[in-house]
Amino acid sequence: MQYRKDKYGEDISVLGYGCMRFTRKGTSIDIDKAEKEVMAAFNAGVNYYDTAYIYPGSEAAMGEIIARNNIRSKIKIATKLPQYLIVSKKAIDKYFAEELSRLRTDYVDYYLMHHLTDVEMWEKLKQIDIISWIEEKKKSGAIKNIGFSYHGNTENFLKILNDYDWDFCQIQYNYLDEVSQAGVEGLKAAAAKGIPVVIMEPLRGGRLVNLLPEEAKKMIAEESRGWTAAEWAFRWLYNQPEVTCVLSGMNSLEMVEENCKTADTSPEGHFTEEDYKFIEKIKAIIKEKEKVGCTGCRYCMPCPKGVDIPGIFRCYNAMYTEGKKDGRFQFAQTVGLTKEPAFASQCIECGKCEKHCPQNIPIREKLKEADKKLRPLHYKIGIGIARKYMFRKAKTKKNK
Ligand code: SF4
Ligand code: SF4
C-alpha cells in the first residue's frame, strides 16, 4: 500500500475504505461479510475508514469489527456530524456522543461537518458556537483532525475552505467532475494551503464503470495495458499529488483485492501523455450524449442575477449521460440548495454571458430548455421545502 501524509505528518493509505456500501442481509448489515472485507483491506495496508452518522448501521458495524479484531489503534476512523439536523449546540454533543458509542471508541481521527453545499451552512454552525466546540474537542483529544465534506459549487467551496483553519476536507472528484463541485480549482486551492484532500465518488457512484457507453467499454477492454474501467478512474486520481486519499465503497473481496492492487501500483505522476489522451477520448464518448456543449470554463460568470450557468448546464447534460434522476439530484445538491438561489428562472436575458462564451452557446435559450427538464413542478416543490428546512434559523441565545 502507498501512503500520503495528513496535515500533521501521519500516514494515510491512498486507498480509503468507504463504509457506506456494506452488503445488507434484509435491513441489517451482513457483519460477517463486512468483517472479512474490512480485514482483507486492513491486511493489505488500508488504514483510513470513512463512515457517517446517517449511513444506516455503518458506524455500529465498524465498532463491532474494530472490537472483534482489536484494531482501533491501528486504523484511522473518519466520521461525520449530521450538521443539517442541528439547530443548537446541545445537539452537537448528543450526536457526537452517540457516534463514539456506536464506534466503541473515545476519539475520532478525522471528523467532518457532513455534506456542506453552501457557506451559509457553515455560518449557521458558527452561530451556534461550533468553533469553540471544535477547539475543546481537539484540545481534549476526542477529535484529532477537523474537516468538512462538500457537494456545492466551486465558489462556496473556496469560501468555506478559506474561512477556517481546517485539517482536511473531502470532495467529490473524478475525471468527469474535473470542473464541477469543488473541482480541480478547489483541490489545488486546498493543497496549496497544506490541507489534505480526501476524494469521494471516484467512480461517480459506479457510473464510470457500469454505465459507461458501450463504445467506451470496448475501448477500455481493447487497450493494451489491460487496465479496468475502475482502474483508469483511480489511476487518474492517484496521479495527482494534491489527492491524499481516495475512498471506495467496497463490498466484495474481489473489489478490495483489485482496488488495493491499483493503489499499490499508481504513484504520483505515473500517467503518460498517452494516458491523458485516452481519458479525454473516453470523456468525449460520454459527452456525445450531452445537450449543451458547455465546457465549464466559467467565462460567462458571474451572472448579475446569480444564475449558475455552468452548474445548470452540467446537471442538464448529466440527465442524458447518467440518467434523469441523477441529473436532477446533482442539480438539487449543487444549484438548488445554495443559500442564494441560482435558478435559470432568475435570468433577465441581458445577454452579457453570451458575449463571453467561447463555445458560442445560446445561453438564454438553453437555460430555459434546461430549467424545464431539471425542474418539473414536483421538483420545484421538493426543492422549495428542502430550502426552507436547510436554511432555517439556528437556535442561538438571542432567538431561542
Ligand atoms: S442573460 Fe441571463 S444568465 Fe446571462 S448574464 Fe444575463 S441574466 Fe445572467
Ligand atoms: S462560457 Fe460558455 S462554455 Fe464556458 S461555462 Fe459559460 S456557458 Fe459554459
Number of helices: 16
What percentage of amino acids are in beta strands? 5-15%
What small-molecule ligands were found?
A: iron/sulfur cluster
Largest sheet: 8 strands, parallel, barrel
Compute the separation of the termini in Å.
51 Å
- Stretches where pLDDT is under 50 for at least 5 consecutive residues are none
Output mean pLDDT.
91
Across the major sheet, the strand order is 3-6-7-8-9-10-11-12
Q: What structural category do the secondary elements indicate?
A: alpha/beta
Shape: globular
In N-to-C order, the SSE pattern is EEEEEHEHEHEHHEHEHEHHEHHHHHHH
What quaternary form is this? single chain
According to DSSP, the number of beta strands is 12
What is the gyration radius calculated from CA atoms?
Answer: 21 Å
- Helix content, binned percent: 40-55%
